[in-house]
Q: What sequence folds into this?
């Protein structure tokens, strides 16, 4: 895949943390290099220890870790990795965080609540990371919570490459539906890329777990609806939206999201909903619970894409040129 000299391999190291092992292995195989040697162990009281098993002095080190469930364990492990690398004199430490936990706590939407996404940015920086690589952050401004460089990737390219292989997802039969007003920009971008129409659901939320959504702006009659979001968490929003577009005459409903968090009643909700397909990526390690979706589920891998990004960061090449015009992350 790459004309990497032996020297390159010695300079660049990719480490697999527990929540990113599935990606690190594929990234390294794409880059034709071994995963760097290290071990993660838990003491009986669940304290984590990381040990690097090779010389990394002055090397360009990347540690791959999604801070998905168990969020706090994975976050703490990432911090310990960063500290270990720093104390072993790594030349540069990049935290590759495909799924960034706590991203939804990005502002004070009421009094006396934390802005945990900012706290997490601070502790990752304090641990000693030199840069961060993330994918489809819940809110683009989280990049600005870090005082170190952040490369913000999007899975748009991976999704669009997949959609292009599907004859049933072409032409005038497609409508992109934004399941809520906050996601209109992303939905609009997909509508442009796929040359499809756009419809919007005006969703009113009563409380954290209760979603009330009722109005559709746009036409879905007889169309294939594609709903694109950054994550499917409890699947409440997307399933309510699916019911609504079906009531309004949609032919078929496909849901796509970068992060398949899929917690609580998500799987049952999707099965009971009119959604005929769910397309996610592997930013979060595949969980056996997802097997409940059977043939409904397609998991696209972002590993090659991440590998390419890491290769470019290592060689001081542009990341934004990975994307075609109009394919960039949400702004």
A:
């Amino acid at each position: 895949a790459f004309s990497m000299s032996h020297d390159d391999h010695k300079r660049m190291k990719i480490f697999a943390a527990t929540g990113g092992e599935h990606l690190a292995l594929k990234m390294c195989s794409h880059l034709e290099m071994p995963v760097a040697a290290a071990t993660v162990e838990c003491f009986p009281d669940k304290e984590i220890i990381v040990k690097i098993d090779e010389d990394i002095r002055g090397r360009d080190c990347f540690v791959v870790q999604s801070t998905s469930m168990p969020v706090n364990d994975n976050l703490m492990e990432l911090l310990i990795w960063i500290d270990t690398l720093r104390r072993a004199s790594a030349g540069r430490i990049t935290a590759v965080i495909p799924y960034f936990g706590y991203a939804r706590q990005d502002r004070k939407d009421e009094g006396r609540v934390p802005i945990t996404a900012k706290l997490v940015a601070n502790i990752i920086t304090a641990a000693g990371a030199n840069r961060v690589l993330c994918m489809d952050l819940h809110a683009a401004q989280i990049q600005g919570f870090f005082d170190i460089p952040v490369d913000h990737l999007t899975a748009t390219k991976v999704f669009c490459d997949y959609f292009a292989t599907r004859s049933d997802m072409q032409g005038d039969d497609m409508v992109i539906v934004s399941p809520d007003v906050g996601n209109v920009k992303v939905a609009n971008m997909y509508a442009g890329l796929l040359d499809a129409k756009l419809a919007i659901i005006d969703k009113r939320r009563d409380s954290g777990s209760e979603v009330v959504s009722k109005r559709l702006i746009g036409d879905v009659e007889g169309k294939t609806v594609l709903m694109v979001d950054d994550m499917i968490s409890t699947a409440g929003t997307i399933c309510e939206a699916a019911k609504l577009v079906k009531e309004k005459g949609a032919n078929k409903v496909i849901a796509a999201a970068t992060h398949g968090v899929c917690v609580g009643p998500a799987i049952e909700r999707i099965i009971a909903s009119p959604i005929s397909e769910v397309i996610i990526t592997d930013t979060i390690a595949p969980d056996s619970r997802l097997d409940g979706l059977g043939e409904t589920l397609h998991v696209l891998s972002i590993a090659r894409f991440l590998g390419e990004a890491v290769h470019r960061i290592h060689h001081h090449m542009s990341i934004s040129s990975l994307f075609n015009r109009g394919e960039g992350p949400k702004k």
